[in-house]
Amino acid sequence: MAHSKETTDTITMRDYTPADKQSFVDLNVEWVEKYFKVEEADRKAWADPDGYVIKPGGRIFFAELNGELVGTCSLIAQGDGVYELAKMAVTEKAQGHGIGNLQLKHVIDEAIKMGAKRLVLETNSGLAPALHLYEKFGFKSLPQGPSGTYERGDVALYLDLA
User: Which of the 8 DSSP states describes residue 92?
Assistant: First the structure.
């Protein structure tokens, strides 16, 4: 549990349940449609979060602000101890509470507990606040660049955990 600096708001992190599917979709659609367009990889993850993320060995997390779901982030198993950090979103109305920081710290801590060796992610060079956040947590540029999973992904980053 964390408290934001400005208020007495309570921010907590928790795991996804199947009842959270629509919130997972809504939180991600909000940011993707604001900056980009929805892509096939998005549709696959949103259509079946359990099958796309959970069953292959990944996890989805949610941030709650005073009991309301305001952020999400997932770890998608890639094999050999590598996980993609994906579908990270904080609803615009809840930004500025440190939720992105809390989510990223939580997901890294959980990945370590899961035995992850490396986290990878794709993002876009136009998302300066996201890039700054990832760099603050030690992510570095992946030499081979983005995998091409997302058209919007023009930056690939990694964080070695082991």
Answer: G
Asked whether the beta carbons of 120 and 155 are under 8 A apart, the reply is: no
| pTM of the predicted structure, to 2 decimals | 0.87
Given a contact cutoff of 8 angstroms between Cβ atoms, the answer to whether 4 and 97 are in contact is yes
pLDDT of residue 34: 86
Rounded CA separation 16/8 (Å)? 25
SS3 75: strand
Query: What end-to-end distance do the CA atoms of the chain give, in Å?
Result: 26
What are the residue ranges in the chain where pLDDT is below 70?
1-8, 144-150
Q: How many CB atoms lie within 10 A of CB 1?
A: 8
- In angstroms, the CA 30 to CA 127 distance is 15
The pair of structure tokens assigned to 114 is: 């899961």
Residue 144: count other Cβ atoms within 10 Å of its Cβ. Answer: 7
**Domain-wise residue ranges, the chain:** 2-115
Is 61 strand, coil or helix?
Answer: strand
Give the relative orientation of helices 99-113 and 128-136 as an angle to the nearest 10 degrees.
50
2-115 is classed in which CATH architecture?
3-Layer(aba) Sandwich (3.40)
